[in-house]
């Protein structure tokens, strides 16, 4: 490991030394890469490597979606990207506000606790969102989204071992204009959105943008007792942005201030079965339900969640000619107050109120430029800090549904946590020979984490630890001609260690788990054929995933529920995959896009302690035969956009099919074999109740563009999941006590009227 660190450090220091010698190198002649292709109308420019490049010139597995593509698909939020990019899976996690479960290439962290960062990073206007809460993003005021697959820690900070979803919103234009739209659909879903730009100077160098989004729905669940709708949500997002870019100065500054406010019903469905404790305490018809169509009928008590999240971002860029300097400052704060009936039954068995506060600050400085014609670079420094507080009040076997958990629980769990992180990074491209380019770099990260866990004000345990790692990256690309690029890369990802926020004993609360490390090897090719009417990309990858962090439920006689959930390192995994995507433009009116991702993943050495079903003693359990969570063996999509000119404007039709193979959502106890007395006990797969069935999702939209009172207008009719493919998005079993799940959106449809001026 020391040799690897020394080698990687040498690469990074060599790159920095090259920058230091810029005056000498700038005069040298250098071999050139193949000429970059000119940008054609409608072509996508990406910033996947913190540089503006054509999508097909970027030696990274990336899928880009711009504003026009989102509008044509009638996309609503980040979840609509599922299946659109190979090996990408996004579901909504209803145990937290606007929370997302994100998986790219089989790497995920499906939890709402704020003690650990997401495996897949969501970056909005250059700012990393440090928790899964707040990642389920609205799509209205979006300029472009880039899905970067594989470890991206070198340039995108924090713990992006799975990949990054890079979201860029529109900038203030410095001119008067805007867009307004209203949408109404099934489940009494109403959305109103508006963005207005205005100049603050005569030359447009100072401009302001205001925005307001509102979305509400009654939800798609039915309460069994009275037939009422459950799962409601009411979401507001509003704010403004100020852009200052004096003409000829090379400077641009954008300050964005906003706030998200959400009220919602975090309803869950009952999946408890015979043999679990809660099944003996609830009505028979609420036990042994299926995890597909039955999910849409619920029995539990009313819940409500309140979420308030103000944030601010300041981005400043200065073009000094040879170098561009960038500073991005991000601040985000959230406050949550949520009740939830986790047992999902009509009997008051496990009901909680969770109070949470979270705050993060981040600061990034970077410099980007070229040295002569052969070398370009991005170097920088990054700082991140976060603090959070959790208080959970629980009613366990209370049989007192009218008593607030705040009153009932005199011994609540309280957690305080903090993260302090600093990093230095560099990324370099060197055109070392004709049509050849070498990419290399890395990031050194130092994280310091602390957590304390109390019950009723009495400290159970506390821990503090520091985790540091250098993660290198190296790649090469070759252009045999101007239509073909072939590339290969090796990159390493690092996801910091931490502490278990659900620990119930001193030993568990004070024991840190180690960082995860991923080594990813990738080869790929990007092709432009038939006079650039067809773009076809293919990538193959192999990932070695070490020190996996997994939640495990263990016996805990002193805990209120009789068990505790701890995070620990549980062995390793190997993930192999293939990815394909294409864009075809057979005519100016027709665009066809498609993608496919294939995954093959396997655990190795996944052994943890568990309770023997015979003796009750702690014995080893081997979970190596279980599937990795959120790992469908195949994802695929096929979409067509067809535009027909008319006398009043144009008509645009979109038809999309998305396929997502079955996947599990929790490492859980399925059928067992082996030595049931002394162990090891062999677990032969996850509990089938935490398994999502295969999905075939058909979406369609029909839009008409026309002129209304001198403004550009659009009327869109849309339908999502038209085949009404029903099933789960989330399933969870709780240590032999009970199980619950959530359902995906069934068939829905509606209409949207929008105006641009």
List the helices and strands and how they pair.
Blueprint: H1 2-20, H2 22-25, E1 45-46, E2 53-54, E3 62-66, H3 67-72, E4 88-93, E5 99-104, E6 107-108, E7 120-124, E8 127-128, E9 142-149, H4 153-156, E10 163-169, E11 177-185, E12 189-199, E13 206-217, E14 221-223, E15 229-230, E16 233-244, E17 251-264, E18 269-270, E19 297-298, E20 305-319, E21 323-341, E22 350-371, E23 375-396, H5 405-408, E24 413-433, E25 436-455, E26 458-481, E27 484-495, H6 506-510, E28 516-529, E29 534-546, E30 549-555, E31 563-569, E32 572-584, E33 590-604, E34 607-611, E35 618-622, E36 634-645, E37 650-660, E38 663-664, E39 672-674, E40 681-683, E41 691-692, E42 695-708, E43 711-720, E44 728-734, E45 738-743, E46 748-756
Parallel strand pairs: 7-10, 14-19, 35-40
Antiparallel strand pairs: 1-2, 3-9, 4-5, 5-6, 7-8, 9-10, 11-12, 11-46, 12-13, 13-16, 14-15, 16-17, 17-20, 18-45, 20-21, 21-22, 22-23, 23-24, 24-25, 25-26, 26-27, 27-28, 28-29, 29-32, 30-31, 32-33, 33-36, 34-35, 36-37, 37-42, 38-41, 39-40, 42-43, 43-46, 44-45
Can you characterise this structure?
The radius of gyration is 26 Å and the shape is globular. 6% of the residues lie in helices and 56% in strands. It has a 22-stranded antiparallel beta barrel. Residues 1-36 have low confidence and may be disordered. Strand 5 and strand 6 form a beta hairpin. It is mainly beta and 757 residues long. It has six helices and 46 strands.
Which labels suit this protein?
757 residues; mainly beta; 22-stranded antiparallel beta barrel; five-stranded mixed beta sheet; 56% strand; globular; disordered N terminus
């Amino acid at each position: 490991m020391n040799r690897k660190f020394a080698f990687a450090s040498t690469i990074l220091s060599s790159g920095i030394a090259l920058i230091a010698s810029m005056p000498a190198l700038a005069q040298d002649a250098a071999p050139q890469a193949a000429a970059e292709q000119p940008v054609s109308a409608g072509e996508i420019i990406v910033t996947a490597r913190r540089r503006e490049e054509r999508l097909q010139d970027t030696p990274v597995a990336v899928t880009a979606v711009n504003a026009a593509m989102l509008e044509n698909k009638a996309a609503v939020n980040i979840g609509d990207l599922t299946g659109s990019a190979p090996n990408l899976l996004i579901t909504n996690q209803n145990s937290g506000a606007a929370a997302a479960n994100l998986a790219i290439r089989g790497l995920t962290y499906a939890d709402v606790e704020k003690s650990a960062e997401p495996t897949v990073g969501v970056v909005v206007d250059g700012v990393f969102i440090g928790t899964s809460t707040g990642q389920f993003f609205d799509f209205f005021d979006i300029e472009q989204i880039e899905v970067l697959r594989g470890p991206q820690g070198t340039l995108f900070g924090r713990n992006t071992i799975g990949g990054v979803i890079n979201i860029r919103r529109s900038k203030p234009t410095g001119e008067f204009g805007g867009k307004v739209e209203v949408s109404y659909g099934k489940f009494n879903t109403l959305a109103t959105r508006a963005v207005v730009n205005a100049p603050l100077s005569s030359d447009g160098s100072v401009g302001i943008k205001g925005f307001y989004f509102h979305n509400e729905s009654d939800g798609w669940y039915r309460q069994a007792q009275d037939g009422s709708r459950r799962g409601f949500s009411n979401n507001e997002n509003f704010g403004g942005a100020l852009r200052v870019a004096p003409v000829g100065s090379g400077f641009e500054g954008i300050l964005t201030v906003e706030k998200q406010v959400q009220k919602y019903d975090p309803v869950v469905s009952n999946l408890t079965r015979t043999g679990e404790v809660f099944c003996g305490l609830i009505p028979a018809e609420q036990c042994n339900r299926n995890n597909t169509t039955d999910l849409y009928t619920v029995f539990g008590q009313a819940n409500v969640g309140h979420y308030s999240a103000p944030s601010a971002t300041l981005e400043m860029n200065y073009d000094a000619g040879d170098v561009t300097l960038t500073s991005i400052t991000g601040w985000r704060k959230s406050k949550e107050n949520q009740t939830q009936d986790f047992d999902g039954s009509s009997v008051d068995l496990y009901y909680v109120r969770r109070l949470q506060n979270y705050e993060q600050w981040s600061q990034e400085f970077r410099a980007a430029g070229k040295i002569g014609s052969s070398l370009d670079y991005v170097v920088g420094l990054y700082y991140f800090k976060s603090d959070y507080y959790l208080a959970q009040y629980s009613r366990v076997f209370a049989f007192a549904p009218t008593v607030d958990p705040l009153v009932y629980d005199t011994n609540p769990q309280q957690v305080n946590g903090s993260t302090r992180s600093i990093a230095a990074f560099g990324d370099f491209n060197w055109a070392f020979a004709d049509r050849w380019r070498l990419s290399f770099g890395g990031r050194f990260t130092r994280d310091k984490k602390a957590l304390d866990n109390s019950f009723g004000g009495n400290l159970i345990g506390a821990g503090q630890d520091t985790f540091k790692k250098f993660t290198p990256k190296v790649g090469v690309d070759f252009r045999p001609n101007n239509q073909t690029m072939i590339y290969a890369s090796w990159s390493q990802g690092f996801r910091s260690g931490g502490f278990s926020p659900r620990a119930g004993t001193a030993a568990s609360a004070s024991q840190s788990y180690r960082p995860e490390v991923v080594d990813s090897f990738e080869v790929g090719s990007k092709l432009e054929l038939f006079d650039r009417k067809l773009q076809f990309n293919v990538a193959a990858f192999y990932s070695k995933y070490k020190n996996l962090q997994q939640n495990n439920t263990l016996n805990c006689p002193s805990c209120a529920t009789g068990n505790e959930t701890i995070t620990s390192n549980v062995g390793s995994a190997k993930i192999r995959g293939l990815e394909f995507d294409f864009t075809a433009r057979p005519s100016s009116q027709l665009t066809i896009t498609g993608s496919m991702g294939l995954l093959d993943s396997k655990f190795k050495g996944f052994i943890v302690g568990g309770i023997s079903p015979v003796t009750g003693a702690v014995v080893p359990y081997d979970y190596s035969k279980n599937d990795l969570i959120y790992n469908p063996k195949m994802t695929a999509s096929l979409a067509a956009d067809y535009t027909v000119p008319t006398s009043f404007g144009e008509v645009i039709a979109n038809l999309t099919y998305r396929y997502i193979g079955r996947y599990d959502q929790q490492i859980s106890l399925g059928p067992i074999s082996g030595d049931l007395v002394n162990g090891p006990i062999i677990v032969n797969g996850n509990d089938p109740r935490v398994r999502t069935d295969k999905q075939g999702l058909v979406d369609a939209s029909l839009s008409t563009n026309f002129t209304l009172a001198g403004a550009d207008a659009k009327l869109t009719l849309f339908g999502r999941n038209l085949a009404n493919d029903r099933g789960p998005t989330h399933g969870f079993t709780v240590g032999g006590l009970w199980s619950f799940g959530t359902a995906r959106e069934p068939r829905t449809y509606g209409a949207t009227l929008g105006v641009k001026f």
